[in-house]
Amino acid sequence: MCGIVGYTGPREAYPIIIKGLKRLEYRGYDSTGVALQNGKGVKVYKKKGKVAELEDAIVGKDLHAHVGIGHTRWATHGEPSDRNAHPHQSSSGKLAMIHNGIIENYAQLKSELINKGYQFRSDTDTEVLLNFIEEIKTNNNCSLEEAVRVALKRVVGAYVILLVDADDPDTIIAARKGSPLVIGVGKGEHFLGSDASPMLEYTKEVVYVNDYELAIVKPDELILKNLGNEKLTPYVQKLDIELAAIEKGGYEHFMLKEIFEQPQTIYDCLRGRLDAVAGTITMSGIQQYADQIVKANRIVMIACGTSWHAGLVAEYIFEELCRINVEVEYASEFRYRNPVISKGDVIIAISQSGETADTLVAIETAKAKGAIILGVVNVVGSSIARASHGGAYTHAGPEIGVASTKAFTAQLAVLTMMALKIAYIKGSVSHDRYMHLLNELQEIPEKVAWVLKHSDHIRTLAEKYKDARDFLYLGRGYNFPVALEGALKLKEISYIHAEGYPAAEMKHGPIALVDETLPVVFVATRDTYHEKVVSNMQEIKARKGQVISVITEGDDMSASLSNDIMIIPEADEIVAPMLSVVPLQLLAYYIGVAKEQDVDKPRNLAKSVTVE
Ligand code: F6R
C-alpha cells in the first residue's frame, strides 16, 4: 500500500528511484510518479498505471537530477488517475511531496485553505497537507523544516511524507507517524524507502524512523529531530537481508517461489530455538515474560487476514497445551471497541509486515491499558516489532507476493514453539507429549518438502476446477482456520468467490449452496475430529457436491469419498496445519495462473495495509 522512495547524493537519482519503485510494486498500487530536483527547480512526472508505463511515457524528458522522490499510490482519496497520482506540487510549484497514509482532518484544512484563496488540482488529502505546509512557510517566513513541524502538529491521521524544495537543492525533508520509513546511510549519500528493498544493493546500514520524528536528509548529513525540534541520535542498524531474497530466483512468480521456500523458512524459524534432543525451546524475546504468560488470565491474539488465521490455529494450540483462555481478535474491531483489558492480559500481535495500521493501533490501545505485548512479526525493525515488549521474529525472509504464504507457516511454527514452551513451564503438558511434539515440529520442513513434490498433481486439479464460480472450504478443529486460509488464498489470487466454514456449521446454512457445480474442499487430515469430518463429506456427497480433500497419506476411506485428493504425510494434529495449508496455497496459485491473473499483485490488494 503506497510505496515511497527517495535519494540524495552524487548518483543520478532517477534510475535509483525507478528501480526502488519496482521493488515496492509488491505493496500494491494504481499510479506512480517521481519528482526530480536538479538545482533549477523541481520537475514532476506522474501517471496512472504501472511504473513501467511511467517510464515509457517520459522517455526523452530531462531526467537528470541528484535528488529525487518517487511514489506508488494505492488510492484512498480520489480515483486512480494522473492528477491524483503523487508527487503533488504546492500552489507556488516550489514544493513537491509524496505521502503514504491518510490525513483524517483534511476536509477542515482544505476549507481553511479555500477561504484563503487556494485552489486544488487533485482530490487528495496529500495536496491539502502540502499547501497547508506551504501556507505556514510563506506566512511565517520560516524554513520548510519548521513549516512541516508546525503543520504536523495540526494533522490528525497517519503519514510518511517526503518533500523536496526548489529553494533547497540537495535536501529531502521526511516525517513519519504510523506508516513505515527507512533511511539508508551510504557514503556521501542517503536513500529513503517504505522498506529496505529499494536500497539493498547500495547500503546495509539503515535507520528506522519512529513516529513523530522528522528527518532532514542531505547527501552527507542526516539530522533526526522530534516534533519538539530536539535533535535525536539516529540509531544505525545493519540489515541482515541479501539481494537474492527479494528476487524471483528462476520461479515464474514470487508466490510460487515463496510457497517452495517453506521447507527452508520453517527450518530457519526453528533453527537455534528448538532442540529436540535436549528437549529445549529457546526464545529470548519470550523468556523474560514467561512467568507472566504462565499466570495470564487470558491471551488475546490480535491480527488481520492471514495472520488472524494463524492466531485462530494458535488459539486451539494454546488452549489445548497451556490451558489458558485465548481470544482471537480482528485488530480493526478490537481497536474501536473499548476493549476490556486487565493487567494480567497478554496480547500476541501477529503480523508479517509489522506495519498493519489496525494491528499497530490495537496493540498501542492494549499497551496503554497495561497489557504485555508480544509481537510475532516477520519484518525486522518494523513498527509492530518495535512497539512490542517482547516476542519472536518469524525469520521467513522478505515476502513479496501479495498473498501471504511462507509467513503463515512461519507464524504457526513460532506460535507452536511459544505454546510448547509455556506449557512446559506451566506443567500443563506431559513430558512425553512435549518431547513428541518437539520431534513432530522438527520434522515439518522435510514433510513440507514432501507435499511440494506433489505440486504437479495439484496443477492438474487447478485446470479441472478453474471455471467453478464458487468454492466452499470446510474443516474442523485445527483445520478449520486452515479452511478459512485456503478460501482466502483462492479469492485473492483467482477472484473466484470462496467461503471457509467450520465443517459441522455448514449444515446451518451454506449446505443450501451445494449442487453438482460446487467444489467443496475438505481439510480432512487424520485427527481427533476425523470421523466427524468424514460424516460431513458424506453429507456433501449425498447432495452431489464435488469433494476435493486434503487427506493424510493412506486414508483410503476419505479418498473413496472424494472426487479428488491432495495428500500430506502423517503428522500430529497440532503441527498438521503447517502441512495441510500447503496444497491449498498451491491450488489457489495454479488456479490463479490458469485464469491468467496477476498472482503476485492481485487487483485492489496491498501487501502492507498501512491505512485503517
Ligand atoms: C492475505 C494477506 C493479508 C494479510 C493482512 C495482515 O494473503 O496477505 O490478509 O495477512 O493484511 O497483514 P500483516 O500480516 O502484514 O499484518
- Quote the beta fraction: 15-25%
Report the mean per-residue pLDDT as an integer.
94
* Strand neighbour order, sheet with most strands: 3-2-4-1-10-9-11-15
Query: What is the number of strand segments?
Result: 27
Radius of gyration, in angstroms, nearest whole number: 25 Å
Number of helices: 21
Q: CATH first level of the largest domain: which class?
A: Alpha Beta
Bound molecule types: fructose -6-phosphate
Q: Outline, from the CA principal axes?
A: globular
The CATH topology of the largest domain, please?
Glutamine Phosphoribosylpyrophosphate, subunit 1, domain 1
- What count of domains describes the coordinates? 3
Q: Low-confidence segments, ≥5 residues, pLDDT <50?
A: none
Range of helix content: 25-40%
Q: What class do helices, strands and sheet pairing give?
A: alpha/beta
Tell me the name of the CATH homologous superfamily of the largest domain: Aminohydrolase, N-terminal nucleophile (Ntn) domain
Largest sheet: 8 strands, antiparallel
The CA-CA distance between the termini, in Å, is 11 Å
By CATH, the architecture of the largest domain is named 4-Layer Sandwich
Short key terms for the protein model shown above:
612 residues; alpha/beta; Glutamine Phosphoribosylpyrophosphate, subunit 1, domain 1; Rossmann fold; 3 domains; eight-stranded antiparallel β-sheet; seven-stranded antiparallel β-sheet; 21 helices; 27 strands; binds fructose -6-phosphate
